[in-house]
Write a structure and sequence with these properties.
The complex is a heterodimer. By secondary structure, chain A is of the alpha/beta class. Chain A is built from 7 helices and 11 strands. The two termini of chain A are 36 Å apart. The chains are: A alpha/beta, B mainly alpha. Chains A and B meet through α2 and α3 of A and α5 of B.
């Protein structure tokens, strides 16, 4: 379970997070939405432990992530899988080595078992015969799939997706979201997904949170539809120009 | 006006001190990882290959020509005082004690140091370093420690190559071109060259290797955003490393010789 309590962060003199509180239950998929530049990725990086909050706490199954350092932080992060917006694949390594890297470094598996796990991982995301290819030779959709395969190969308990469908055509974007959903259902992962892909994102999430002016507004999702009468979320989801959210 | 100037200077001073402190902590953390975790020998060898092996041609060429220039200049100067026979020791001692370590370090900074910074800066901007951290791994152990060890080993070997080729270059000019007896050239070198000179040169190479890896990795890790940030970080890494090599050279010379 992920609990965020009154998180504050100032970056370059701007209050990006102004008391964000949030709770994601075990096995729940949480969609994080909001205007561009509102601080979604900043919040995600806090939960991942890549940024330190100015104030507030982040608890991962009751353990205070913001106070964890060194080996403790590494241990908590070992439970994570993270799919970056651009994939963040190691460009000097082949797809095979990208997937093998965490397995070689974090486990004592022999190369044969690693090879089997990689084949299984690539098959899971629908990729074939890409092992010897370098990331620069992959298409956008293939990069996201490879990044997902790399995140899943270590069998994480908690997974984060930072705008995984940005820059992809609608069909590939939907396929990627379906893939996330399949992996989530099969592996019972707890997940947070940052996305602008509304309303498609509501097909795979159980709860949605909108970051607005540094604060979190949450709503439930029922049968693939958002269940809220909050005018801010409604305006954003419907993509209306007029409403309480002012675009400058 | 004066108050604003003092405030400005104060802010600049605080920023500089903070920056030096962060760089010092980066080095401390890296050295701590070097002694507390098993070394990634595969990555170390890769760094030695990149920093050392791929620089060999450049080092041979510049080493030989530096020795040849020393031969020409040294012969011309020494002949004024009738001491041409001292050309060998002049070339060898200049190279081993001073020019070899410093020039090899400056060349390595330009060729390999800039590439190290650029690579790490790109990894930082493409979130590859974040990806390593999120795997529960320490990026210092994977990126910085092998670079430090590789750089120290490679620069020491490159300096020896530079020295040897330089002495050979001095021989070509002094003996083959200007007619100094071969026995005199090498005989005087063995007479005046002491083990302390060689050890002092090695100390210099070791410390310069560490310095280059430290500055270049630190600048890469703390790069600005985008291509402009990476480019600035690379320039700063080369300039700072080069200046620090020359400054540190003075202190280490006064310490070891």
């Amino acid at each position: 379970m992920i609990e965020i309590d009154n998180l504050h962060k100032q970056l370059a003199g701007k209050d990006v997070l102004r008391g964000v509180s949030l709770r994601v239950e075990k096995g729940e998929f949480f969609a994080l939405i909001g205007q561009s530049g509102c601080g979604k990725s900043v919040l995600l990086k806090h939960i991942a432990g890549l940024l330190q909050p100015d104030r507030g706490r982040i608890l991962i199954d009751g353990e205070d992530l913001s106070a964890a350092r060194g080996k403790d932080l590494e241990r908590i992060r070992s439970r994570y899988g993270f799919v970056f917006q651009n994939g963040a694949l190691f460009d000097s390594m082949t797809v095979y080595d990208n997937l093998a890297f965490p397995l070689r470094e974090k486990t004592r598996l022999n190369e044969e078992t690693i090879r089997e796990k990689i084949a299984q991982g690539l098959d899971q995301v629908g990729l074939k015969e890409v092992e010897s290819i370098y990331p620069s030779q992959l298409s956008g959709g293939m990069t996201k799939r490879t990044a997902l395969a790399r995140a899943l190969v270590m069998e994480p308990e908690i997974i984060f997706f930072d705008e995984p469908t940005t820059g992809l055509d609608p069909i590939i974007a939907k396929t990627i979201l379906e893939l996330f959903n399949t992996c989530h259902e099969k592996l019972n992962l707890t997940g947070i997904i940052v996305s602008h892909q509304v309303p498609d994102i509501f097909q795979i999430a159980q709860k949605v949170g909108m970051l607005h002016e540094g604060k979190m507004i949450t709503a439930d999702i029922r049968d693939g539809k958002i269940d809220t009468d909050n005018p801010i979320i409604q305006q954003f989801v419907e993509g209306r120009v007029d409403g309480p959210v002012q675009y400058k | 006006m004066i108050a604003r100037l003092i405030t400005g200077l104060g802010k600049f001073g605080v920023l500089r001190v903070g920056s030096v402190g962060r760089a010092g902590l980066f080095l401390f953390d890296s050295l701590l990882n070097l002694v507390s975790t098993p070394l990634k020998w595969g990555r170390v060898l890769k760094q030695i290959e990149f920093i050392g092996w791929q620089s060999t041609g450049l080092i041979c060429l510049t080493g030989a020509f530096t020795g040849m220039v020393l031969g020409l200049q040294g012969h011309s100067t020494l002949s004024r005082v009738g001491s041409e026979t001292m050309l060998g020791p002049l070339v060898a001692l200049s190279l081993i004690r001073e020019l070899g370590p410093v020039l090899a370090a400056l060349l390595m900074t330009g060729r390999a140091g800039s590439a190290i910074t650029a690579e790490i800066a790109i990894m930082r901007n493409n979130e590859q370093i974040d990806a390593i951290e999120l795997m529960g791994l320490n990026p210092l152990r994977y990126l910085v420690v092998p670079t430090i060890v590789g750089s120290v080993i490679a620069l020491t070997i490159l300096t020896w190559i530079f020295d040897l080729l330089g002495i050979f270059g001095g021989y070509l000019v002094g003996v083959k071109m200007l007619g100094l007896p071969s026995g005199t050239y090498f005989g005087e070198i063995s007479r005046y060259l002491e083990m302390d000179d060689i050890i002092g040169g090695v100390y210099k190479s070791l410390s310069f290797g560490l310095l280059i890896a430290w500055v270049c990795c630190y600048k890469g890790f703390n790069t600005g955003f985008g291509a402009e940030g990476a480019s600035k970080a690379t320039t700063q890494a080369v300039v700072n490393s080069s200046v620090l090599i020359l400054i540190w050279d003075y202190f280490i010379t006064s310490l070891v010789f």
